[in-house]
Amino acid sequence: MTHLIETPPPSRRKRPLFLRRGPMENIATTLIAIGFLMLFQPFLLVLYSYSLVTLLAGTAMFIIVSKFPE
After folding, report:
1. Residue 24 domain flag
2. What is the C-alpha to C-alpha distance for residues 27 and 25, in angstroms, rounded to an integer?
3. Residue 64 — φ and ψ, nearest 5°?
4. Using one digit for the tens of pLDDT, what is the confidence trace for 1-55?
5. CA 18/CA 69 separation, integer angstroms
6. Is residue 11 in some structural domain?
7. Is residue 1 part of a domain?
8. TM segments (predicted)?
9. Is 65 helix (H, G, I), strand (E, B) or coil?
C-alpha cells in the first residue's frame, strides 16, 4: 500500500507575511492613521510636513494590498 502525500490546494498554502492580505491591510491602515495624526498635531512642523506623504503612502499601499488573495 502506498501512502500519497496530500499537498494543500494553492489557495490554502501559507504565504509569507508580506504577501498576506490581512496583516498588510492592518499595516496600511495604521500608516494612514499615523499620517492623519501627523496632519492634525500642532507641535512639530516636521511631522506636519511629512503627513501628506505618509497618508499617500498608506493609501497607495492599501489599494495595492486589497488586491492580494485572502
Report:
1. yes
2. 5
3. -70, -45
4. 566 777 666 656 677 776 788 999 999 999 999 999 999 999 999 999 999 999 9
5. 12
6. no
7. no
8. 22-40, 46-65
9. helix
pLDDT in tens, 59-69: 999 999 999 88
Separation between Cα atoms, residue 31 and residue 37, nearest integer Å:
10
pLDDT at 48: 94
| Grid cell listed for 14 | 501559507
Nine cell digits for residue 1: 500500500
Q: Is residue 3 assigned to a domain?
A: no
Domain range enclosing 36 = 18-65
Q: Look-up: residue for cell 492592518?
A: 26
Compute the distance between CA of residue 37 and CA of residue 30 in angstroms, rounded to an integer.
11
Please identify which residue in the block is written with the cell numbers 497607495: 60
The position carrying cell 495595492 is 64
**Which amino acid is located at 24 in the chain?**
M
User: Which ranges of the chain would DSSP assign to H, the alpha helix?
Assistant: 21-39, 45-65
Question: Taking CA 34 as the corner, what is the angle to CA 33 and CA 35, rounded to the nearest 5 degrees?
Answer: 90
